[in-house]
Amino acid sequence: MSDSIESRLKEERRFPPSAEFSKGARVQSHAAYTSMYELSLSDPETFWREETGDLVFRTPWKKVSEWALPHAKFFVGATLNITESCLDRHLGTSARTRAAIVWEGEPGDVRTLTYFELHREVVRLSAALTDLGVKPGDRVAIYMGMVPETAVAMLACARIGATHSVIFGGFSSDALRERINDCGAKVLLTQDGAWRRGNVVPLKKMADEALEKTPSIEKAVVLRRIGQEKCPVEMKQGRDVWWDELVTRTPSENALGLAKKPAAFDAEHPLFILYTSGSTGKPKGVLHTTAGYLVGAHVTTKYVFDLRESDLYWCTADVGWVTGHSYIVYGPLSCGASCMMYEGAPNAPDWGRFWNIIEKHGVTILYTAPTAIRAFIRAGDQWPAKADLSSLRLLGSVGEPINPEAWTWYHRVVGGGRCPIVDTWWQTETGSIMLTTLPGACYSKPGSTGLPLFGVDIEVVKDRGDPCKANEGGKLVIQRPWPSMARTLYNDDARFKDAYWSQMPGVYFTGDGARRDEDGYFWVVGRIDDVLNVAGHRIGTAEIESALVSHPAVAEAAAVGRPDDLKGQALVVFVTLKQGQDPKDLKSKLAEHIDKEIGKFARPDAIRFTDSLPKTRSGKIMRRLLKEVASGAETKGDTSTLEDLSVLAKLRTDEE
Ligand code: WTA
């Protein structure tokens, strides 16, 4: 990876779209992009009036935005039901019978839901949820895998104004419980189990453990995905109900009325809470509201993926993360797109799975993460070579910096040299893509995440907020609110202010470091706060540390990132044990402890025991030094504040 950083600094190649691609694209030239971008900042009223024309509002908006930072409102005065833009509006068009979701399960089973069928499923579930007592503003937790019903669940909540919180199926029961309790969810939607690499992930069993201490939960709805034989579940009387039984009950008249002709909600009605990691211990419940989020997801999907009726678009993210929310569910469905959805792992049964899916279904647009691309490179070119990938016409990347080697491979081997690549930078908090290159309009540079999208006033600045010169590294900030901006952190508005709006007055701090080159292209280096990006998963060092110190043998812990060729960053933890504890066997015990507290995806790549951690005289752990030790680099910079220099020397000689 250090090679990659070097090569990103030297990267000068430009890849323009082919004339043919540009000719059919929505935005066909750099000049056209620039004039749209400039209009979006100079006259947002006109720009957004035009761009929101496709969407369904019951009451039209009166004013684009209003803000008293850090709070902002968008599309003021509008009322809407977001699902009418995602579902109902397509029923009167040719999309009615078009596939909304083409789903493939890991064992190879395939299901297709047309827009008509998806709408029907959402109506049925939303009526059933109303009859369970779910009301507008109530929170509903969703702990499911990659099945079409997860999208149905999200949309059914939105249809009746309930705020959903999807909790990634890789989280442990402890992590699930913590999130349910933080948002006070009334109902949990889950499934018996999910297929992952030939094994069953027992979601319901984990949910049962979580629900032992979740006083707000009244009902749990359980989808049968695997079946009793391979995944037996216990249904708790009075609390648990089978999904299929629930939706086939005759709904009350009131519930059916609300499901068929749903209520309209205010533009700022809370749509969802999504937990993500920050630099301090507790996960942050990022809150998104309705109209601004919809507009952000819709407009970016439409322009970045340049969708056409003939496309089969595939975003490989998990619905449990923001990419799944915006680019599997709300964005593409609001565009009437046909979306591929796949349940399982990329290497099940072998590394040919993705290529096989593309060939079998005729996927035209693929949106995936650099970590996956690097894993495919390692698995070998023979896998993509076996499949016919000629249906692909556009490729996307998201979640972490892409190194030019991976970019070039993606372009050459997967895209056959003909598909533009859109590298998209954004965050859970931004709700939708902020930086990229519009595929028919702008050339891309491998490793650069391109130019700002509409309405995004973004800059690289020095500590005090002065803009950096071209190619000078600094902090990436957004200088005015944008429609899909997170509105707050659920139950913690003070933290919202502090985490994003306190570094520099009036600007949103992303937590990322970046530079902007002489062509105005952004190069995002990665997080400069205490957040790691391990295989595209956002992990807070403080979360890992507090999980570790909750183990009875641990006195103190520090988690840092180390560059990793495959995962981008690997997670290394330094642990000091309590007096009398024997490190023997503790490595695996601590790894299991992390599985339990957070989830397997957060398992450290290396655990190092040490007698003490390097600290400043005021007692702060010096992470910078630990990072250097973890990556085997020479100590750079100032060590004069280190309390005891011998700690450092000792750490270096300790075995990993
Ligand atoms: C990183 C994922 C470089 C970045 C959508 C950001 C990226 C964090 C890119 C957000 C990219 C995302 N190039 N880095 N194209 N996309 N990141 O909230 O550090 O899971 O702050 O949202 O991922 O992660 P999150």
Topology:
Layout: H1 2-10, H2 19-24, H3 30-42, H4 44-51, E1 63-68, E2 71-76, E3 79-80, H5 82-91, E4 99-104, E5 110-114, H6 115-131, E6 139-143, H7 148-159, E7 163-166, H8 173-183, E8 187-191, E9 194-196, E10 199-201, H9 203-210, E11 219-223, E12 240-242, H10 243-248, H11 253-260, E13 265-266, E14 270-276, E15 284-289, H12 290-304, E16 312-315, H13 322-334, E17 338-342, H14 353-361, E18 365-368, H15 370-379, H16 382-385, E19 394-398, H17 404-414, E20 421-424, E21 435-436, E22 451-452, E23 458-461, E24 474-478, E25 488-489, H18 493-501, E26 508-516, E27 522-527, E28 531-534, E29 537-540, H19 541-549, E30 554-564, E31 568-577, H20 586-597, E32 606-609, H21 623-631, H22 645-653
Parallel strand pairs: 4-17, 6-7, 6-8, 8-11, 11-12, 16-17, 16-18, 18-19, 19-20, 31-32
Antiparallel strand pairs: 1-2, 3-13, 4-5, 9-10, 14-15, 15-25, 21-22, 23-24, 24-26, 26-27, 28-29, 30-31
Helix pairs in contact: 3-4, 5-6, 5-13, 6-7, 6-11, 8-9, 12-13, 15-17
Bound molecules: 5'-O-[(S)-ethoxy(hydroxy)phosphoryl]adenosine.
5'-O-[(S)-ethoxy(hydroxy)phosphoryl]adenosine binds at residues 276, 321-323, 398-401, 423-428, 449, 510-512, 524, 526-527, 533, 538.
